[in-house]
From TrEMBL:
UniProt-listed InterPro entries: Ran_GTPase-activating (IPR051553), RCC1/BLIP-II (IPR009091), Reg_chr_condens (IPR000408)
RCC repeat ranges per the UniProt record: 5-63, 214-270, 313-350
Name of the featured protein: RCC1/BLIP-II
Lineage summary: Eukaryota, Fungi, Dikarya, Ascomycota, Pezizomycotina
A Pfam family the protein falls into: RCC1
Amino acid sequence: MPYKYRLYALGNNEHTQLGLGPTSTAIQKISYLAKVECPPPKYNQRISSIHCGANHTLLHTETSAVHGAGRNVERQLGYRVRKKNSNINSNFAIHQDCLIEFDKMYRRISFCAATERTSAYIVNPGIEGNPTDIPLLFTEGLNYNNDGELGRTDLDSTVNIRNPDTKCTFNPRLDKIPNQWFPVGIVEETTFPASKVIDLAAGMHHYVAVLDNGEVWGWGAARQQQLGPDARRTYPAGVKRPNNITPEDLGFRPRKVVCGQAFTLIAGEPATGAYTILGLDHKSVVKDRPADIKNWKDIVATWKAVIVLFQDGTVRGWGDSFKFRLIPQRIPLLEQIAAGTEHVVALTMDQRVISWGWNEHGNCGRPGTAVKYFNDAWNVITGYKGAVDLIAAGWATTFVVTRERDESSVGAFAYHVSPPAEQVTDGGEALQDEE
């Protein structure tokens, strides 16, 4: 490997979702950037994406493996719990309430995502582990409010599908696949066409997938029209199996999907900037949207807002800005952007990691203070070693992945607010896989 990778985290750790290991199980809030000791950096596997549920985290590596940490009461992380931790915290090990550090769960995963209490995985055709010509879906966890986010029709939980002490059995459709483990079986109700998934996203209680044939599929909560107005009328209690939700008047070929708490943004090619939003107009997320987002580089969503990063490094946002200004004034040009439920993390063109928004759990950094919101101001987060490769944000959590060639010691931590408080102009408060 040409690079050594490191993972850092801060924010809410109430259910060990930061994956910091046994020494951090009693620490519920971490407002300084802490190094995470976990398999992907340890084995120099690049982390390609990070996905967060309410209290669990999924790391998806460049080698298509998934590592998980955090709350596992509802089996959103399956049954893979490290026995070596049994002498450290019996509550976590025996009752399997949490994975206290990142553990390798699955291999050969094309896409993954997480809602509040579930996880979803896609294995595309052509990937070893999928002998069919359709994408395979498997889900784990607990449907919330009977919304159907597991996509398993009448099954609302995978908690009791199998005993964790018994040997895992293969789903009949996959029984000829070596070294693959689907402990709760694939979603038999899935009727994806012969195609491949090219993007997958999750809201609070719904999932949406974009296929390379131009179709958009979704399942889960539909009351707020996040899966389209037709889904709300047809499935008022939730879409309990994956369905084709492609809008009839879409008018462009989908490439990317982004989900807020209860809305879905479907985008086409950056060159055209075409996009649409499914969902009710909460906080003007529909009414205030621009006509197009031409030359977009990335698109992210908080609970009730959208932020677009353009190829020239500028950003634009719309939607809920009640608690903090979506785009702080005088913000520098950005290279990467990530959004949690109510906070934003970005990498500037000059390679600084900055964060703004809700900071109640320390997820924007700045230890030793009681800054609840960074409103029209941002915090510069330091304390990592190497060049920033990836940033991610979740339910009051923040992650930074770095790369470097030299394994030297990590430098000291330093935090400050930028711009200075006197420049704030809006009057807001600155504040399981086999080894």
